[in-house]
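#dry-run=false #mode=assembly
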Amino acid sequence: MGNFEQKVNKFIEIFLEQGGYVKVIEGLRNTLTIAVAGLIIGILIGTVIATVRVLPKYKVLPRVMNGICSFYVALFRGTPMVVQLLVFYYVLLPIIGWRITGVQVAMLVFGLNSGAYISEIMRSGIQSVDSGQMEAGRAVGLSFGVSMVKIVIPQAVKNILPTLGNEFISLIKETSVVSFVGAADLYVAFNYIGSNSYEFMVPYLVMALIYIVLVLLISLLVKLMERSLKKSDRRN
Amino acid sequence: MIDVINLRKSFGDTEVLKGIDITINKGDIVAVIGPSGSGKSTFLRCLNCMEDPSGGNIIFNGVDIADMSVNINVHRRHMGMVFQHFNLFNNKTVLQNIMMAPVYLRCQDLKKAKRKNSRTRFGNLFRGGNAKELLPVTQTNEQIKSEVREQAMELLRRISLEDKADVYPSTLSGGQKQRIAIVRSLAMDPDVILFDEPTSALDPEMVGEVLELMKQLAGDGMTMVVVTHEMGFAREVANRVVFMDEGQIKEEGDPEEFFGNPREPRLREFLSKIL
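#status=ok
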């Protein structure tokens, strides 16, 4: 294994002495920023879409909005993330003349994309809450929106938290494609280290390790959140 | 107080209510009985537009709430409802369950009044001598909150559950849940409370405590409409009993006559089966 030791030493040399760690930290920051921003935008969009989809539909406006939302979900679930990134960065943004960086485009696209997925998750969450909860809210004079926000959605979120955690994990992993639009994520950082030493084995191994650690941390976080949200159904 | 005129309701092609006419006066305790599928729950749910009526009018305090263009939320504040399955908010503690709607709605009203006042104040700059009067704003959000909390605790003391104020509904028995659901609607200080089979989902042991609370409310002069299978309650507490069958009111009268001397053959059959 003398060969392997050599490779590790080379990696450590570049990582520490030639500024490789700066790249890695920057990549990690970008990866997390894109995933977190994507999740937050996604939850907002997803909640709105899910609410529209469970609205009673005997008026025209809810039906039109429902149609728009279905189209949105079909569009973003029907195309790969890479394609969406490329279309936004090289087609849509030049057309409307917006100048934003690759990271910002990635945050936007990840948000829009996960919004489509989260809307379905959220809808099943909302439908898992007993309809009596909404009725009780309406019966004391609260509007549909207020009952939704204060009573139904908190209970829905509790039910779907594990699935939302899954969505966050897959967002983290999918960030590895953002280099297509010039955003420097973890992959770009380790690729840089690798190409500087003509040696890819160790950098990519470390990269895989970092992703695994990230995902495990998130799973732990979700578990903790679940436990604290469970207090309303534990008998004490 | 509530005038129901030719109320109709269909689900798809099935007509569930085929023209109901009834007047509920202040202080009335109306028991609605009837076989299952007779439309009595639907009737009750139409009264506060939980189901939108397909036809007819419901005049509540002078406003036709069956008209889809009225803001039903405003009128529902004056119309409490108690459900068969309690429907306490699972994500709120008992105290929050009771306080939530009054606090939210009163704070909202306060906000609206303040907003209106600032508009009026701006307008008054141009009105010269004949300035418009401002709406009275006497409370802050905190004052509303502490006042409602005080009332909620008072209500909880009344049903001797003040020690349960900070627990979640999942830890309570059915009877306790239903009594809390009743005081939750009382906290809105409603003009009328609608009860949708309030004791049907309870253990026989717990029925008593809920009926006891309802009797107390009746004694305080609360207007109540109760869909029930508790004939004892209907006979003892109600001052009017309504028999519904096939989406219509078949017989109506004071309990003495209703149970002592039923005219309708369908009612006689119904009573003979359950008494």
